[in-house]
Each structure stands twice: as structure tokens, then as C-alpha cells.
């Protein structure tokens, strides 16, 4: 029989992560940097997955790796492959100009969750480029249970090593590309960009926080104070909205800030922010759909707008209609498509369940 773990506020936080990406794709980075919303998703994944796996070890004495992988398959694969098919159909019927796309190569890369490599190569089916981050998470899921199952004594060292490698190596490769390849396309440039998209450092940051909370919760006391929370939220929002880029460590800086927010929302009884509102929890529950459907819906909506309305349509109206359609499609998808696989996951493969995962 599986037990259930509930982290408050994280379901609502998932919605805001998805919303930031949607706003970015409608308005651009002059309004918000959507890439940072993906970093927030990565931190959430690292925190949640690590928490559940260590709870599983606490309960059963081991990690059931096969069960874990099946849970990820049933949660991730159905929507991932559905959006891949939608993207192929948009490409096949030329609904949206997609640049240079080799349909066979793109299909094979998506099939094996190498969508982040496609993104770096600037190749993707229209509307399906967003799947790059799902590929990164799936690659993370392939190694993480093994690390906790067989190397958890060295878990902290592994997390710190991953963070260091994924922060230092891309910058080192950029230096090599600039100084020895004249900034031209090279293996060094490709590898640097790919490592930034794989982003295991963001997931490891969330994982590290989960480990500290589960094993040494008193160490977090200083981060749970009200003055620190006020500073944390103001600093994070100000840096995000101003779109300041801190050279060399930008993603890691935000991964650290987001992880501190996550542990305050999930683990701090004195949290100054509450996201436990029913409408937020609903939108967070369908956030995977919001994230993966919104680009394809925007493409189809724009096609309809340009056909039936003047070319100078309102961007704000376009966004509102697109967001509402995305919510509708995601809600229907969750209720009548995703739930089928989630029931199988919960009934047959769950050992420790989380209502936000």
C-alpha cells in the first residue's frame, strides 16, 4: 500500500512557472524571461523526485527503480508524444513556417527524448520546440533513481559535483570556442549550449534542498525567518522582471533563489505566501498541459486571426484568448486523457505518492 506525501503550495507554484513561459511566448522577454520559468520547473522536479525517493527508502529500505521509471513513463510520455504528433501534423500541413526541419531526424530525436539537442540545433516541429525541457527532465529521471539507490552515501557530493560541472564546463567551452574557434559553430559551442539546456544543475539544486530538509531540517531555520522571506521574494521578482543577466552563473543564481522559495512554500509553517487556493491548485494540476500545448494553440490561433481578422490585431486580446483556450484544452486533456494513465500509475506503481507530482 502506498503512502502519500503532500507539499503545500507547490501545485500553485507550478501554474506560475507555466504562466511565465506562456507570457514569454506571447510577449517576448521584454515582459518576462520565460527560460527562468523552465528553471523553476527543473528545481521543482529535483526537489519532489528526491523527496519521494528518499521517503521510499525510509519506508521500504530501497528504491524500486522499475516502478519509478514506469511512474515517469505514465506521467510524461502520453502528452509528450501527443504534442510531438501535433507538431508533425502542423509541419506536414504547413500550418506554420518552421524553418529547416528534417522530419525523420526530428521524429527520431523526439522519439528518444533528445528534444533538447534538437532545440540547440534549432530544429523542431512547429509547436513542439517546447518539449526540449521535457527531454532534459526525462534524461534526469533515467539516472536519478540509480544514484539514490546505489550512491546515496555520496548524495551531497554528487549534487555539488553536478552543480559545479554544469556551471563551470559550459563557460569553459564558451571560452575555448571564442578564443580557439573564433566564435564559429563548433563542437565546443554545441556542447556548451546543450549542457545549459540539460540543466542538471537546476534539478540537483532542488534535490540538494530536499536532502537537507529530510536529514537536517534545522539547517534551514535561517531561511525560514520572515525577514529573509521578504528579501527573497523581492529580490527574486526584481531580478526576474528586470531581466538582469548575471554572467557565468545566471541560471544557477535563479535555481538557488527558486529552490529557497520552494522549501519555504513547501516546508515552512511560517510561510508568508499561500498558494493553497482552489483555482490555483486546479491550474497547477493541469500545468503540464498548459506548458506543452500552449505553443501549438498559439500557432493555430494566429492562423485563424490572420485569416478572419485584420493583421493589426490586439496582442493583449490574442494572449487572453490563447490563454483561455490553453486552459480549456489542458483541462479536457487532463480529465479525459492524462487521468487514464495517472490512475494506472497510482494503482499499480506508486509507493510514495505526491499530490503535486
Structure notes:
The chain has 357 residues and is an all-alpha fold. The chain has one domain (3-354). It has helices at 10-27, 34-60, 65-92, 103-111, 115-120, 132-151, 155-180, 187-198, 200-215, 226-242, 250-267, 278-285, 287-308, 315-349; strands spanning 3-5, 352-354. The protein is globular, with a radius of gyration of 20 Å.
Offer a concise description of the structure.
The chain is mainly α and 357 residues long. It has 14 helices and 2 strands, in the order E-H-H-H-H-H-H-H-H-H-H-H-H-H-H-E. The longest helix is centred in the last third of the chain and has 35 residues, at 315-349.
Task: List the topology elements.
Elements: E1 3-5, H1 10-27, H2 34-60, H3 65-92, H4 103-111, H5 115-120, H6 132-151, H7 155-180, H8 187-198, H9 200-215, H10 226-242, H11 250-267, H12 278-285, H13 287-308, H14 315-349, E2 352-354
Parallel strand pairs: 1-2
Helix pairs in contact: 1-2, 1-12, 1-13, 1-14, 2-6, 2-9, 2-11, 3-4, 3-6, 3-13, 3-14, 7-8, 7-9, 9-11, 10-11, 13-14
From the structure above, extract its key features:
single chain, 357 residues, mainly alpha
Regarding quaternary structure, what we see is single chain
End-to-end span in angstroms? 18 Å
Q: What can be said about the biggest beta sheet?
A: 2 strands, parallel
The side-by-side strand order for the widest beta sheet comes to: 1-2
Q: Provide the gyration radius in Å.
A: 20 Å
Number of helices: 14
The stretches of 5 or more residues where confidence is low (pLDDT under 50) are none
Percent strand: under 5%
SSE succession: EHHHHHHHHHHHHHHE
Instruction: Name the overall outline.
Output: globular
Helix content: over 70%
Structural class: mainly alpha
Number of DSSP-assigned strands? 2
Average of pLDDT: 93
Amino acid at each position: 500500500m502506498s503512502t502519500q506525501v503532500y507539499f503545500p503550495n507547490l501545485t500553485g507554484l507550478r501554474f506560475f512557472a507555466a504562466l511565465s513561459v506562456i507570457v514569454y511566448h506571447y510577449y517576448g522577454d521584454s515582459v518576462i524571461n520565460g527560460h527562468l520559468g523552465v528553471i523553476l520547473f527543473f528545481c521543482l522536479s529535483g526537489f519532489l523526485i528526491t523527496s519521494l525517493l528518499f521517503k521510499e527508502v525510509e519506508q521500504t529500505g530501497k528504491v524500486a527503480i522499475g516502478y519509478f521509471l514506469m511512474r515517469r513513463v505514465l506521467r510524461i510520455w502520453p502528452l509528450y508524444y501527443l504534442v510531438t504528433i501535433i507538431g508533425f501534423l502542423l509541419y506536414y500541413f504547413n500550418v506554420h513556417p518552421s524553418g529547416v526541419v528534417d522530419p525523420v531526424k526530428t521524429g527520431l530525436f523526439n522519439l528518444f527524448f533528445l528534444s533538447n539537442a534538437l532545440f540547440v540545433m534549432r530544429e523542431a516541429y512547429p509547436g513542439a520546440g517546447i518539449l526540449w525541457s521535457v527531454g532534459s527532465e526525462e534524461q534526469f529521471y533515467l539516472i536519478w533513481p540509480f544514484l539514490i539507490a546505489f550512491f546515496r552515501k555520496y548524495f551531497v557530493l554528487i549534487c555539488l559535483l553536478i552543480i559545479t560541472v554544469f556551471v563551470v564546463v559550459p563557460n569553459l567551452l564558451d571560452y575555448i570556442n571564442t578564443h580557439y574557434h573564433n566564435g564559429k559553430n563548433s563542437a565546443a559551442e554545441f556542447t556548451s549550449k546543450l549542457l545549459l539546456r540539460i540543466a542538471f544543475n537546476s534539478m540537483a539544486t532542488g534535490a540538494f534542498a530536499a536532502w537537507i530538509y529530510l536529514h537536517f531540517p534545522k539547517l534551514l531555520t535561517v531561511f525560514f525567518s520572515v525577514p529573509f522571506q521578504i528579501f527573497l521574494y523581492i529580490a527574486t521578482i526584481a531580478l526576474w522582471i528586470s531581466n538582469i543577466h548575471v554572467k557565468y552563473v545566471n541560471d544557477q543564481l535563479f535555481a538557488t533563489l527558486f529552490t529557497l522559495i520552494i522549501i519555504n512554500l513547501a516546508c515552512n509553517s511560517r510561510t508568508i505566501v499561500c498558494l493553497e487556493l482552489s483555482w490555483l491548485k486546479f491550474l497547477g494540476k493541469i500545468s503540464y498541459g498548459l506548458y506543452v500545448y500552449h505553443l501549438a494553440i498559439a500557432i493555430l490561433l494566429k492562423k485563424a486571426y490572420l485569416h478572419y481578422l485584420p493583421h493589426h490585431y490586439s496582442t493583449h486580446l490574442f494572449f487572453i484568448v490563447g490563454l483561455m483556450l490553453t486552459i480549456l484544452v489542458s483541462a479536457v486533456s487532463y480529465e479525459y486523457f492524462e487521468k487514464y494513465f495517472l490512475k494506472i500509475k497510482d494503482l499499480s506503481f506508486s509507493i510514495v505518492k505526491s499530490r503535486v507530482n
